[in-house]
Amino acid sequence: MSLNPIREAGNVVIYELLGSGDTDRIEKMLGLYAKLFPQYQHYVPRMRRRARFGNEHREGHVVHYWLVEVDGQPAGLRTFRYVRGRRCGLAHSLAVDPDFRKVIAADQTLAVFIIYECLYQVIRDAKQKGDLPLYGMVNEVEPHRLMEHYMRNGLVQLPLKYVEPIFPPEVEGRSRSEELANTRFSPMHIGFLPNPEVKTEIFTCEMIKNFVEAFLVDHYGLPEQHPVVLEVLETIDV
Fold first, then answer.
1. For residues 133 and 148, is the Cβ–Cβ distance under 8 A?
2. 167: domain CATH number?
3. Residue 17, in any domain of the structure
């Protein structure tokens, strides 16, 4: 099954993969993910399973898996979601193959183009649902030099000490509590890309708490009272 692109800019084309049945592009996206995120390649089997379902397989979440092609070649990927109850988007993964990082799309580098396109997508998601305008897109970012680059392109670094859960490889029969016991945590920056229609300029403690819980509780599935969740919330500095 071939897909109609959801966005084209010159020789750059974005395809939505969830529920598409486009096995060829799904496998190209997963191959790119494993290549550019070797530390997370054990997530590929669960991502492949998730790709069989549509965007709204999980209630309250509108999820997107994008493959970005340049001249018909897989060049980048983006996974992200709109969390309706939190009024924000969550950007999970962004990767651009080094061979394509100097590509320009709509007068932006390819990575920056993708970042803004997924912001526009979650803004559309909220409008299509008849929801209140979302605050913007919350991004996990590492390392520090990348955060600095994104700040020059419109992201705001939020004042907290955040960590990303990295779950162990799947093992049949292992309980959720056993999985959590084997989860490690990696320091990350949190960058926020505001919705230009809302123009958020002041970030309250309650707003940042909402963003953190959207990631750690709603997306990653940590219990609200998990020690790491509580520790991260305690670091919010506003």
1. no
2. 3.40.630.30
3. yes
Q: What pTM was estimated for this model as a whole?
A: 0.94
* Full residue range of the structural domain in which residue 91 is found: 7-234
- The structure tokens listed for 221 are 């599935």
**Positive or negative CA dihedral for 48, 54, 58, 60?**
positive
The candidate with the shortest Cα–Cα distance to 206, out of 87, 84, 82, is 87
In a domain, residue 2? The reply is: no
- DSSP summary character for residue 142: -
Q: Which two tokens stand for residue 176?
A: 């959720």
Contact between residue 89 and residue 122 where contact means Cβ atoms under 8 Å apart: yes
Two structure tokens written together for 216: 């750690």
**Residue 45: closest CA among 181, 169, 166, 182:** 169
CB neighbour class for 50 (10 Å; exposed up to 12, middle 13-18, buried from 19): middle
| pLDDT tens sequence across 97-124 | 999 999 999 999 999 999 999 999 999 9
Model confidence band, residue 2 (pLDDT cutoffs 50, 70, 90): very low
Instruction: Please report, for residues 17, 97, 124, 154, 174, the alpha-carbon distance to residue 68 in angstroms, rounded to integers and kept in the order given.
Output: 11, 10, 19, 21, 35
